[in-house]
Write a structure and sequence with these properties.
The complex is a heterodimer of chains A (243) and B (404). Chain A has three domains: 4-88, Sufe protein. Chain: A; 95-148, Arc Repressor Mutant, subunit A (Orthogonal Bundle); 167-241, GMP Synthetase, Chain A, domain 3 (2-Layer Sandwich). Helices cover 46% and strands 17% of the residues of chain A. Chain A is built from nine helices and seven strands. Chain A is rod-shaped and about 95 Å long. Chain A starts with a strand and ends with a strand. Chain B has two domains: 4-9 and 258-390, Aspartate Aminotransferase, domain 1 (Alpha-Beta Complex), CATH 3.90.1150; 16-255, Aspartate Aminotransferase, domain 2 (3-Layer(aba) Sandwich). Chain B has 13 helices and 13 strands. Chain B has helices spanning 16-22, 38-58, 71-85, 100-107, 109-113, 132-138, 161-170, 242-280, 307-316, 326-329, 336-340, 345-348, 362-381; strands at residues 4-5, 65-68, 91-95, 118-122, 143-147, 174-178, 197-201, 212-216, 284-286, 297-302, 319-320, 322-323, 351-355. Chain B has a seven-stranded mixed beta sheet, with helices on both faces. In chain B, helix 7 links the parallel strand 5 and strand 6. Chain B is globular and about 70 Å long. The chains are: A alpha+beta (243), B alpha/beta (404). The A-B interface holds A 1-5, 21-30, 66, 100-102, 125, 129, 132-134, 200-202, 222, 236, 238 and B 88, 90, 114-116, 118, 304-309, 312, 325, 327-328, 330-333, 345-346, 349, 382-385, 400-403.
C-alpha cells in the first residue's frame, strides 16, 4: 500500500519548476516528503532521479533508524511520479511482493539491502517496513539477505547441550516409558494409552479401552502418567488428553 | 503557553494537597516505619493510616493491601503468585486488549517459569466490550488465573468484572483485575465483588509515580514476588516508600470525595468534547462503547490522517493527548487494542485519546474544540487517502492489510 505520492512540474529546460507531495504518516514521513520536494526544486529531472533515501535523511540532519523507511517512502514516491511522467511502468513494483502487510516487493528489499548495506531483518524493516507486520515473511527476508551476501545457507546444527532434549529424543523416551511401564500397568485394568503428539512440553495422549469410561481416568493421567513421564523423561512435561 | 493536559490515562498531576502531606516525610519525618523507637514508629502509624484510607476507597480490609512500586509490579506479583500456588495448572485466561503489564507478562511466562503455559486471550467486540459467554467457555479445570482489566486505558471501556469474578469464583479459579484506570474514577467495592487480586497505581489518581498497591483477598493463597525483609508481613520485602504511601492515602481520600464530580462534571466535559469533535469533523469515529465507559476518556479515530502528526500539531498549542498510531509506539502496527477491535487501518492510525481529570475546565475543552478540527483538515489535505468522495461518509475506508 502506497502511503505517499509526489508530483512535479517541469520548465522548458527540463528542470523541476515546482514539486508537491501527499503523505499519510508520522512527522518523519511528512518531513521526508517535504524535504524531498525542497531538494528537487530547480534541478534537472535526471539529477532529481539520483537522490537516494540517505540523501533525504542527511538533508533532515538524520533520522532515527526505525524511521528510515520514511525517507525510503519519499524517494519511492518521486520514482513513481517520474515513471508516470515518462509513461513507463514503475520498475520496483514489478517485483514479487514479499511482505503482504505493507506491499513491499523483493526488488525494493534487494535495493535497500544493497544501497544502505543492511545486515539484519530488523534493519530491512527499519528501511522498508517489510517484515514489520505479521512477520510471516521473515524467512524470505533472511533468504534475500543471504542472496545479497552470496552466502550459502548455513547448516542447522542440532542442539546437543546436555539436559536439553530434541523433540525426537523426547518422543522416543516418552514412547519407551509408555511401553515399559505405563502400558503394562494400564492393561492390567483393561485399559491402554496411545501417544498422539508432543508439542514442546505438552504431551497429548489418548486413553483407550477401559480407561475411556473410567471416572478416575483424569487422575490416572495426572497422578500416574504425568508423574512417571516427569520422573523419567523431563520434569516440565504436561500430559493432556487429546480429543 | 498554557498546557492543556488531556492525557490523564497516561499519568495525572500530583494534587497539591497530596504534595503537601508528603513533604514532611522528605524532611523531618525520615524515620524507618519498622524501627522500634518513637521517631520511626510515628512514621509507621502514618503508613497504616494511609493504608486505611486506600482500603476505604476500595471497600477492602487494610491488611489485604500490599504496597508495591507500581501497577506493573502488582500485576506481575498477582499472576506469578497464582501460578506458583497452583503449579499443576498451566492455563491463563486474559484478553486481547490488556495493558502490556499483563499482556507481555503472559506472553513471556514460558521463558520466565521454564514451563509451557496455555494462554487464552479473549477477543473483544468492535465496541471493545467482552462476550461473557466466550469467557465462560474459555475456563477449564487447568485454568490457574483469570486476569482482565477493569477499564481499558485506550478506550475507557469497562469490563463486567463483577460477573466475571463471580463466574471464576464458582469454578474455583483465581481472579485478578488490573484496575489501574478504574480506581478513583468509578465506584469499586471489593466487599461485593469476589476478586482475589486487584492492581492499582498511584500516579493515575493524582498521587506520585513509583507507588502501587496489590490487593490480595484474605484467604487467597499468596507467594511473594520480592523477597526480603518482613515488611508488609513478609509479602513484599523492601523499606516502604513512606512519602508516596502517605500521598496515595491522601489521593484516595480525595478520589472518594471527588468521584461524584468525576462522574458528573468531568463526564459532561468529556461528552461535550466528544460530541463537538464527532460533529465538527467528518469521517471521525468513536472507538469504544458509548456508555460502558470511564467518565473521563474518549478515543476518536480521524480517518485518513496519522496520529503522531496530529499529536505534534496539538503539541504546538500546548495540548497533551496520545494516539494508538504505530508511529508513536515505534512499531509498524497500530495499537493492539485498536486491532483487537477491528478498527480499519487508516482509522486505527488516526486514533487520538483524550483523557480528562477533575482539573480540566470547560475553557480547555472549548480550546481543543477550536484547535483540533483545523489540524485534521490540514493533514487530510496532504493525505493520499483523503479523496473528495470521502467527505461526509463515515467509516468508508477499507483495510487492505493484515492488521486486523
Amino acid at each position: 500500500m502506497r502511503t505517499g505520492s509526489a508530483s512535479f512540474k517541469l520548465d522548458d529546460t527540463g528542470r523541476i519548476a515546482d514539486a508537491k507531495f501527499k503523505t499519510f504518516g508520522c512527522a518523519s514521513a511528512i518531513a521526508s516528503s517535504s524535504a524531498l520536494t525542497e531538494m528537487i526544486k530547480g534541478i534537472p529531472l535526471v539529477e532529481a532521479e539520483k537522490i537516494t533515501n540517505e540523501d533525504i535523511a542527511e538533508y533532515l540532519g538524520g533520522l532515527p533508524k526505525e524511521k528510515m523507511h520514511c525517507s525510503v517512502m519519499g524517494r519511492e514516491a518521486l520514482e513513481a511520479a517520474i515513471a508516470y511522467y515518462r509513461g513507463i511502468p514503475l520498475p520496483m513494483a514489478e517485483g514479487e511482493v514479499v511482505c503482504e502487510c505493507f506491499g513491499v516487493t523483493d526488488l525494493e528489499v534487494k535495493r535497500a539491502i544493497a544501497e544502505s548495506n543492511l545486515r539484519t531483518v530488523e534493519e530491512i524493516t527499519n528501511f522498508t517496513k517489510a517484515g514489520g507486520g505479521c512477520g510471516k515473511c521473515h524467512d524470505r527476508l533472511e533468504e534475500l539477505l543471504r542472496e545479497a551476501r552470496h552466502e550459502v545457507q548455513q547448516q542447522i546444527i542440532p542442539d546437543k547441550r546436555p539436559g536439553r532434549l530434541t523433540n525426537i529424543q523426547k518422543i522416543k523416551r516418552i514412547e519407551e516409558v509408555l511401553e515399559r511401564e505405563i502400558r503394562p500397568a494400564l492393561r492390567k485394568d483393561g485399559g491402554d494409552i496411545e501417544l498422539i503428539d508432543v508439542d514442546g512440553d505438552f504431551v497429548m495422549v489418548s486413553l483407550r479401552g477401559a480407561c475411556v469410561s473410567c471416572k478416575k481416568s483424569q487422575t490416572t493421567l495426572k497422578e500416574y502418567v504425568e508423574k512417571k513421564l516427569r520422573e523419567q523423561v523431563l520434569d516440565t512435561l504436561i500430559v493432556e488428553e487429546g480429543k | 503557553m498554557n498546557t492543556v493536559y488531556m492525557d490523564n490515562n497516561a499519568t495525572t498531576r500530583v494534587a497539591p494537597e497530596v504534595v503537601e502531606v508528603m513533604l514532611p516525610y522528605y524532611s523531618d519525618l525520615y524515620g524507618n516505619p519498622s524501627s522500634m523507637h518513637t521517631f520511626g514508629g510515628q512514621v509507621g502509624r502514618a503508613v497504616e493510616e494511609a493504608r486505611g484510607r486506600i482500603a476505604a476507597l476500595l471497600g477492602a480490609q487494610p491488611d489485604e493491601l500490599i504496597f508495591t512500586s507500581c501497577g506493573t509490579e502488582s500485576d506481575s506479583t498477582a499472576i506469578l503468585s497464582a501460578l506458583q500456588s497452583f503449579p499443576e495448572k498451566r492455563h491463563i485466561v486474559t484478553t486481547r486488549v490488556e495493558h502490556p503489564a499483563v499482556k507481555n507478562l503472559c506472553e513471556s511466562l514460558d521463558k520466565l517459569t521454564g514451563h509451557k503455559h496455555r494462554i487464552t486471550q479473549l477477543p473483544v467486540n468492535s465496541d471493545g466490550t467482552l462476550d461473557l459467554k466466550l469467557y465462560e467457555e474459555s475456563l477449564t479445570d487447568e485454568t490457574a488465573i483469570v486476569s482482565a482489566m477493569w477499564a481499558n486505558n485506550e478506550t475507557g471501556v469497562i469490563f463486567p468484572i463483577k460477573e466475571m469474578a463471580q463466574i471464576a469464583k464458582s469454578r474455583g479459579i483465581l481472579f485478578h483485575t488490573d484496575a489501574v484506570q478504574a480506581v478513583g474514577k468509578i465506584p469499586i467495592n471489593l466487599s461485593q465483588v469476589p476478586i482475589d487480586f486487584l492492581s492499582l497505581s498511584g500516579h493515575k489518581l493524582h498521587a506520585p509515580k513509583g507507588i502501587g498497591v496489590l490487593y490480595v483477598r484474605k484467604g487467597t493463597p499468596f507467594v511473594p514476588f520480592i523477597i526480603g525483609g518482613h515488611q508488609e508481613h513478609g509479602r513484599r520485602g523492601g523499606t516502604e516508600n513512606v512519602a508516596s504511601i502517605v500521598g496515595l492515602g491522601k489521593a484516595c481520600e480525595m478520589a472518594a470525595r471527588q468521584m461524584q464530580d468525576e462522574n458528573t462534571r468531568v463526564k459532561a466535559l468529556r461528552d461535550k468534547l466528544e460530541d463537538g469533535l464527532l460533529t465538527s469533523i467528518p469521517n471521525s469515529l468513536l472507538n469504544g462503547h458509548k456508555t460502558l465507559r470511564l467518565p473521563n476518556t474518549t478515543n476518536i479515530s480521524f480517518e485518513y490522517v496519522e496520529g503522531e502528526a496530529i499529536l505534534l500539531h496539538l503539541d504546538r498549542f500546548g495540548i497533551c493527548a496520545s494516539s494508538g498510531s504505530a508511529c508513536t509506539s515505534g512499531s509498524l502496527e497500530p495499537s493492539h487494542v485498536m486491532r483487537a477491535m477491528g478498527v480499519p487501518f487508516t482509522a486505527a492510525h488516526g486514533s487520538i485519546r483524550l483523557s480528562l481529570s477533575v482539573y480540566n475546565t470547560e475553557a480547555e475543552v472549548d480550546f481543543v474544540l477550536e484547535k483540533l478540527p483545523p489540524v485534521i483538515a490540514q493533514l487530510r489535505e496532504m493525505s493520499p487517502f483523503w479523496k473528495s468522495e470521502h467527505k461526509g461518509k463515515v467509516g468508508s475506508s477499507q483495510c487492505k492489510c493484515s492488521c486486523s
